[in-house]
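call fold(seq) -> tokens
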Amino acid sequence: MKFVYDVDGAQWPDGMDSNIKLTANNILKFVRNVRADARQNRPRLRVVPVDDLGDVRMAELRNGLMRQIEHLSNASVAYDTAYMQSVTGSIGYFRIVTEFESEDSFNQQIRIKRIRNPYTVHFDPGAREFNKEDARWCFIEDYMPRGEFKDKYPNAEMSDFDAQSQGQAMEGWFEKDKVRIAEYYYKVKTPFTLSLVERRFEDGSTRTEAMEITDEVKDFIKRTKANVLKDRESFRTEVKWAKVTGVDVLEETDFPTQDIPVIAVQGDEIVIDGETHLLSFTRGAHDLQRMLNFWLTKATKIMAKAPDAPFLLTDGQIEGHENEWNQPNALDRAFLRYNETAAGKPSREQPIPPPIGMLAMIGSMDNGIENHLGVFESFKGAPSNERSNVAIQTRIGQSQKGSFVFVDNYARALIHANKIINRLIPKIYDTQRALQVMGEGGDVSVERFNAPTGEVNAENNPVIANDLSVGSFDIIETLGVSSVSRRQEERQDLLAAMQYAGPVAPALLPFIFKLSDSPNSQEITKAVADFMSAMQEGQQKPQGGSNGG
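ret:
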């Protein structure tokens, strides 16, 4: 990341003996283009039911709840920070936390937080899954001022860890006014016996159900004369959380899912000789950027040392004005005086041109950076023969393929994060509550969840409205443009369709105004719809007249 943003002269290698080191950071513009593309084309994720207990309406309510969680968390900051880290430094992170709604409430809420420094995160190196879902543990390091540490943990010893992390400066680990702490997530697996139990009912029907064998279940099997078809050994995964120093456990609790809620957004992953390597978007372009800086600096030095183009003149042309002509370029003179002679006026030689070979190298390095990153002139607005919207978009898409692997990995991370949130929802929002849900267009409404209706079902159990604990749901992905871009694209499609719609064109007008981003779009849409409705009623009204005699 230091190289991409040229922090502390990182684009110049150590040991370069030069008093002038110029930098033309051509890589950064491509990185910003890739980041902008990810913002405009954020993956579209949806909750869908996956069993007979989950229904489409509850899936849509979960969608709205998850959108509101993202909105209140300002999740776009966490997402963009992690994506930027993966593009420029090969990996980034964000996290999911639970916190109390307020200081005087026991109700908890789900929030998405960014992790500013990816080098403070340490995952289990034995994790093999792409998003590290199978990691057994994870550390997130931080610092706490010593005064705050003493107030919060008066009985704890102020001790740092001793290890140094890649990406951290040594002098930052042992500061007198700070204590190094870490959040520690780890998984605990508890074995149990799972049995497939067949129950037989009075009407002769049967139903099989997987049950954990406990004393209560054994009594149930015996009482109902159920049959155990088969057993297997399984285990249940729990996630624990602790805040620790080098020697003390300061806090600890359970995290209510089986997932470590730290999301890795990875760059380009390759495995060579059994070792995993992560590559940033700019990794292979570093030497090209260094060479561009070198040749630019070299050419600048040569041109700076080159003498100014001399004047050709005679003594008589400047006689009496020698002081002005001795240093013609030293002062910002508005004019230079000369004497009219038969030789005419003084003339100047052509300036020394830049070295052609060096200019060729600068151009070659610039093109080489584009070739490596896979982002070409068509993406930067160069003229072309394409005129139709489809052709232009296809051309731009060709130039974006070089970065698609990072966009795709980003989508995988968001899917994993949303799966965790989806599993957290029934654990965190487990009481009767009124919660805000956000529609796909950004409209917000309030829904009551886990609310008793006062009715009972066929099994004499109370009916709960919007019960978040009922049904199984999963996350699917639709990778596409943002909702704003989708509205604009749909509006353009409708405008194009009106040219060929004929008599049905007026019916499309309300939808065109509805998709407008104008502040008064809703009022305009209603006015157009009312006008069109009045016109239709007028056309359908029978005309008066005599029927003849």
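Residues 136-259 form one domain.
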